[in-house]
Amino acid sequence: CSTSEVLKQGYVLDEDTLALVPVGSSREQVLLSLGTPSTTATFDNDEVFYYISQTRSRPVAFMKPRLVDQRVLAVYFSSEGMVRQIANYTLQDGRVFDLISRTTPTGGRDLTFLGQLLAGPGEGGGAVPNPFGQTSDGNPY
Amino acid sequence: CQTEPDIDITALASDIDPPDVLYNQGLANLQGGRLTEAARKFEAIDRQHPYSEFARRALVMNAFVKYRQGDYDEAVNGASRYLSLYPGDQDAAYAQYIIGLSYFRQIRDVTQDQRDSARAIQAMQAVVDRYPDSEYVEDAQAKIRFARDQLAGKEMQVGRYYLERREYVAAINRFRNVVERYPNTRQVEEALARLVEANYALGLTDEAQTAAAVLGHNYPDSQWYADSYALLQTGGLQPRENTGSWISRAGAALIGPDA
Amino acid sequence: AVVNSIQVQGNSRIDAETVRGNITIRPGQDFTNADIDESVRRLFATGLFSDIRIAQQGGALVVTVSENQILNQVVFNGNSRIRDRQLEGIVQTKPLGPYSEPLVQADIQAIRDAYAAIGRNDATVTTNTVTLADGRINLAFEVNEGDRTRISTVNFVGNQAFNDGRLREVITTKRSNFLSFLTRRDVYAEDKLRADEELLRRFYYNRGYADFQVVSSFAELDPATNEYTVTITVQEGERYNFGAVNVESSVADVNTEELQALVQSRSGATYSAEDVEDTIVAISERVADSGFPFAQVTPRGDRDFANRTISVSYLIDQGPRAYVERIEIRGNTRTRDYVIRREFDLSEGDAFNQAMVRRARERLQRLGYFGSVEISTAPGSQPDRIIIIVDVQDQPTGEFSIGAGYSTGSDGGASIEASVTERNFLGRGQFIRVAAGGGENSRSYRVSFTEPYFLGYRLAAGFDVFRVEDDRPDNYSYEQTGVTLRVAAPITNNLTAGLAYNFSETRYTGTDSSLSLAYQQGIASSPWIKSSISPTLTFNTLDDRQLPRDGIFAEAGMEVAGLGGDAEFIKFTGRANYFQLLSESQDIIGSVAVGAGHMVSLGDNARVFDQFLQGGETIRGFDARGFGPRSELLADGDRDALGGTTYFNASAEASMPMPVVPRDFGLRVAAFADAGTLYGTDLDPSVTVGGVGFDQTWRASVGASLIWASPFGPLRLDYAVPVAKEEFDDVQEFRFGASSRF
Hints:
The complex is a heterotrimer. Chain B is mainly α. Helices cover 70% and strands 0% of the residues of chain B.
């Protein structure tokens, strides 16, 4: 049995439904046949739909899956909401670079080793009824 | 397993101390920093003189003492009971504020569940809406901003997780969520910079350029903008705002349409 | 209507302002009858008043209330089986709360239900009250617990295929036996009986009885003896086999032949609902993995009454196209978000795939960090979007445990070990353990750390630092300190590869001159440094770690010592264990184990401490280091064990639950036969002169053992008689090993 695995991620594209949305078809028709896009490029008037699918292969179970194929189907709409142009971006269009390692600081209590030991069984769950038999949302019964 | 002794309830006469004496003892203990003793005094008033005027004040003082002791659940319970019994009272704003603070103190690191941030926002928002002229409104709003930044921080943390694994769809949607729902937090700068990275890696250069343009437009001297600009430079690109794109519209929402 | 003031009458303790605060009517504002009703409802909701009347008199609204008596103290007397604290949780009447008769009645019933749940159906509860000054009351619940209601017999009517004894083992309601106070299995509960019916249905469906029905099941309480007799009437119906079984697909280019191989429900075999379910899971996983995430598998069975067969066809068709919009992780108050998220093979934006979600759930549960893991789905923002919601509940993963053990044999004796373990260190999923142990004359210390996702790969990398001090009065003592750096990588679901680097320095001291030449040579070469690399390969398909009934556990490894240090050898070792459930009704488990090892020393001769030492733990019936090559005859007439360069062993064992004792004791008996050999030596010829046992002679033994998975820890008692041995071997028929953690 081969140990390598192929992981298909993102949008599942099949060629024949693509033919259903030639240039000029309406936005609703695209939504109907291709479904909701992975992400869109416009805030409200949906200028571009992006259908993004990735294929990864993992030679052995513990390895990180390696990106072997990436397809971005971009459907550009005109201002009247008709398909103006369809473009395809592949893995070659993508760029590889190392990401910025800095992160914006955030707050909140963090666990220290002693804190974890002393904290014991973690947070007591659930509303504790107080002497009036009220649960914490305040009604008496 | 020994059985508990039977209690003969007739003998259980409750000793009654005058409420004002108890109340002043409670206050004295509070000033003296003996919190447990103060809590016991305030609870004694509640037990012996339920629903009296002193009991009302003791209830809210007790909630404060529990909060100072770090017993947040009890503080929230005491304060909520106060609000249900005396909703229109002058200390109600303070009680609501104590509830907000109790949740606020329990906010965790962004890599963990942020339900306390959400509860803190809800409670502090109640202070702002129901008691607009109380002196706690200003701090309540500051706490809301911090808690929202925590929620945005969690979205960013998950977004970065997917970005490192080059799962761009997940990353873009998470960062986009930050830009659209938490525009007035510190995280939005990084969110825009990460969008530049994600789109650029995908090969969607015009999206990357728009994101960088909005970032530059709103935060011209931010280090994130400098990094994004440098990144686009490597591909010989300029941050060019594609006005129709959602990012520029979100940017407009950030700084007001006319700016 | 409008009023200009609100007057409150009838209140003595409760402040008028509190009453006004809780009604919706305000002076000067218009109000309707609906407002009056709402106000009455809210005032009642505070629980402070037994009666409320609101009426308008002229310009004023008059609210007449009569206050409930306030409870001062609520106590419970006469209860020992259930603690006061638990009763306080069940009861709604609380100190400082209102005293209302209907509420007290409800509490009495709640207490009776609590006692019924622990098998005391005839407990009775009464209350008495004492009124104090200014309308306050003390209330006491007087509880008379009665004694345990037991179950005398559980009998079945209408069962031919399986006898009563077998069916009794299927259901959870058990007859009372002297251990019931511990197991509580003999408590009769209505819903438990319903659950038992379901267990019976599954039992029969999995054995071909597709028409099985539970006609009736009820329990009669005999008040005189306070015991239940439970009678369950069943109708088994016909026994069915599988007819034709095939896989059909309406989804293009899914090759059904390949899927046919996955089918567990073979035609001709007895019908089993479980096989059908397993087949569905197997097919849907295979289909999903081969790129059809939206495909759905639905079984269609049609029954042929004549020759009593059910033919099943598995239909694969296109399910709804749904994508994951977000994965929401909630409840993790300690474990970090990424530790949970990385167990998912699917990410946001991917096609929703039920098989992958199920696999993630299994992985999360296997982590052992969570009390509960629930994965549910919620509709997303678009019709074809789904939100996966992961609700986890962190459980304490820190553990301070003290273990005591006793084992017989020459180097046995009592031993104790204390350890602090944290399986989810700082919520980062890392494992850290500090342990210290000791026996009569040995002390050991060990620190271990493991990071399960080293550098983002699914590699479990870690290190162990250990120190052992062992000073045996009769011959020699040694101190060993060392460190192991290890990494383990899953190749497939069942196969894991491991690589470890070990460095250890051992100092020997031996004053006793009666040691054999080989040991004296070994001690002379102290301190002895070993620096070695050991790659291993582990294959594990056991279904259960504590009591495997099916599956194989096999491990093969190599240790190459000689990267610096004094020890220079290559050791090949391998072992395999195969388990098979021989009889399901009697729960007889058969297991076969084989093992082998060979050592080749590089450079000059090996030392006695590097050679393989075998004994009772491999062939039961022999003492520790009981067989294999021996040194020359020593002054005290004994010979030291020199160990060997090559060993083979094999063992066969069959275990079953102790016949007469009820199964939920966890008592099992086993019969076994062991065989093995240890031979060959790489020692310096000068130290092996006069030695014996270097040739390949097989030792064997047969025996029986008693295994008890007791609440205090596993206990094992072996009695074995060697049937083939050398006269110089050390024999030890009786072995007893117990270790308990508490």
